[in-house]
Amino acid sequence: MSRATREAYRDTLLPLLGRHPELMCLDSDTGLFGADHVAEAGEQYLNIGIAEQNLMGVAAGMAACGRVPFVNTMAAFAASRALEAIKIDIAYNRLPVRIMATHGGLAAGHLGPTHQALEDLAVMRVLPGMTVVVPADAAATEAFVEQSVDLPGPLYVRLGRKPTPPLPDGPPPVIGQAQTLRHGDDVVLVACGPYPVLACLAAADALAADGVQACVLNMHTLRPLDTATLAAAARPTRLVVTLEEHWRSGGLGGAVAEALAETEPVRVLRLGVPDTFVGEVGNQEHLVRHYDLTAERVAGAVRTALHTAARSVTPDHDKELIS
Amino acid sequence: MTGTQLLEREAPEALEHLEAIAARIRSHVVDMCAGPEGGHLGGAFSCADVLTALYFSVLNVDPERPEDPDRDRFLLSKGHAAVGLYATLAERGFFPVAELAGYGRPGSRLMGHPVRAVPGVELPTGSLGHGLALACGFALANRYAGRGARSFVLLGDGELQEGSVWEAAIAAASLRLDRLVAIVDRNGLQLTGATEGIAPMEPLAERWSSFGWAVRDVDGHDPAALAHHLGAAPWEPGKPSVLIARTVKGHGLPFLAGRSSSHYVTLSPRNHARALSALRRPEVLG
């Protein structure tokens, strides 16, 4: 059943607060926690107002005194507005603050570019010691929130806004370990987040019909990146394709390309949101289709690239693909 | 009644004691600012008496137990005055005074802004506008833990131009953090000139008061008055306290006092000697 990852976070955190008195939930008036939730959390919940820099500083100060704060904000405000406080007050001190960032990627939908976060993975994953995860569904969110209680150092979790579909059943994901959802030696499809992972699974099905065996990795943890699983999957193939709700620079595609460039002679195609601000109204599903972050695009990119590699030329549509 | 009279009544020897310590702190700062990288002399001098009052009269800290959970916590939000903090921490016994000679030299842990590697530094500071929010976090954590410890933070007056200061000021008042004490080093100058010419902040006391803080305004070069008022906080139940310390940038050095050019100084051998001479002759203090 479709479920919002931000709601899965909230519903997982509430019982954890009762079991772990050191945990805190610091809110910046996001509205995620309603009156009933606030009552349940008791004094472990505080709404400190619409002030994201202050939110990060207060959380850092509490963490320096032994608390483990979960802070609620939107990804856009964490990654841009409060970035310096995250860098200096939290990451520099390696403090165990959990930045629970909603409205990640295109999840803000019609709210527009002020509320969309297409740069957050790029900026968070360069901060030393920061763990960066993108759960692909509600079940993964529950698993990550539970695992985060004892995680050393800071954590950034990119969450959605509205319900998104569940991934097919499988063992619960573990922070830091890529999930191999399909095995295959012809191409590796790497994705993070709800719609990109589902698109890669569908693309793998479509490619199988052509006789192309695709490995699909759910790279839910961008940092620390599971380079061992990535390199092992890439080694027998000629092509790796990444897909994410993020500008093409610096996010999952950037992380994968950086890692493979150091160890594997393999081509990496990075698919993501083009170098533009969202210019039209649409919910998340609409915008995902509008920017072609789809199974068809992934399968088409693979067919083109494998065909191109076989012929050793670069046709015009391939140039477009990587522009 | 002045702070001096107040403190003399409580501890007759304390005033002379604090003034002597502040003079030693200033002399260490002068030495550091004569090193290869220079330093933020002006702002370190303006807050030297505040740091002295805090570390030698007010704060419940113990260099032998720097991580004691019940300790009072202090943050130098105006982190550029690091040389003043280093000198104070060394005088207080957090690390050997001899280590100050390494300031600004390759391999030293005494960076140009406070770093956590230095014993006694709670958290690194230097990018302005961070300290008050961090101190709010200290105060909140202490409240949740049922500890009576107080949290102190020293802000520069130019730093008040950072919006994040006022985000934290709002939060501190709304959270009723009355174990939180802010001090504004009101020297009136920032890097390129007068704060009131660049971005006026007066009426400063009224501004803090309107944000829900208890406010006092004192001579920031009267260690006894500083110790008295800071020691007495919280001044009003349920309200955080802010002390506006009226100071002079480069206080005590006739050729630098009250000038924005004192902000960052690399003292030549001649000026180093002039500064040390001025510090030894209190009658010429500016």
Structural summary, described in words:
- The complex is a heterodimer of chains A (about 325) and B (about 290).
- Chain A is built from 13 helices and twelve strands.
- Chain A is an alpha/beta fold.
- The radius of gyration of chain A is 19 Å and the shape is globular.
- About 0% of the residues of chain A have low confidence.
- Chain B contains eleven helices and seven strands.
- In chain B, helix 4 packs across helix 10.
- Chains A and B meet through helix 3 and helix 5 of A and helix 6 and helix 7 of B.
Mean pLDDT figure of chain B:
94
Query: How would a crystallographer describe the biggest sheet of chain B?
Result: 5 strands, parallel
**Which pair of protein chains has the largest interface, and what are the residue counts?**
A-B, 26 and 29 residues
Give the strand order, joined by hyphens, for the main sheet of chain B: 1-2-3-7-6
- Structural class per helix/strand content of chain A? alpha/beta
Instruction: Report the portion of residues of chain B in β strands.
Output: 5-15%
Order of helices and strands of chain A: HEHEHEHHEHEHEEEHEEHEHEHHH
Shape of chain A: globular
Which structural class do you get from the secondary structure elements of chain B? alpha/beta
Task: Calculate the terminal CA-CA distance of chain B, rounded to whole Å.
Answer: 24 Å
| Unreliable runs of chain A | 313-320
Oligomer kind: heterodimer
Q: Major sheet of chain A: size, sense and barrel closure?
A: 7 strands, mixed
Helix count from the secondary structure assignment of chain B? 11
Order of helices and strands of chain B: HHHHEHHEHEEEHHEHEH
Task: Provide a concise account of the structure shown.
Chain A is of the alpha/beta class.
List strands and helices in order, with pairings.
The complex is a heterodimer of chains A (323) and B (286).
Chain A: H1 5-19, E1 23-27, H2 35-41, E2 45-47, H3 52-64, E3 68-74, H4 75-81, H5 83-91, E4 98-102, H6 120-125, E5 131-133, H7 138-148, E6 155-158, E7 179-182, E8 187-191, H8 194-209, E9 214-218, E10 221-223, H9 227-234, E11 239-247, H10 252-263, E12 267-273, H11 284-290, H12 295-311, H13 316-321
Parallel strand pairs in A: 1-2, 1-3, 3-4, 4-6, 5-6, 8-9, 8-11, 11-12
Antiparallel strand pairs in A: 5-10, 7-9
Chain B: H1 3-10, H2 14-33, H3 41-46, H4 48-58, E1 73-76, H5 82-92, H6 131-144, E2 151-156, H7 163-174, E3 180-186, E4 189-190, E5 193-194, H8 195-198, H9 204-210, E6 214-219, H10 223-232, E7 241-246, H11 269-280
Parallel strand pairs in B: 1-2, 2-3, 3-7, 6-7
Antiparallel strand pairs in B: 4-5
Helix pairs in contact in B: 1-10, 2-4, 2-5, 2-11, 4-5, 4-10, 6-7
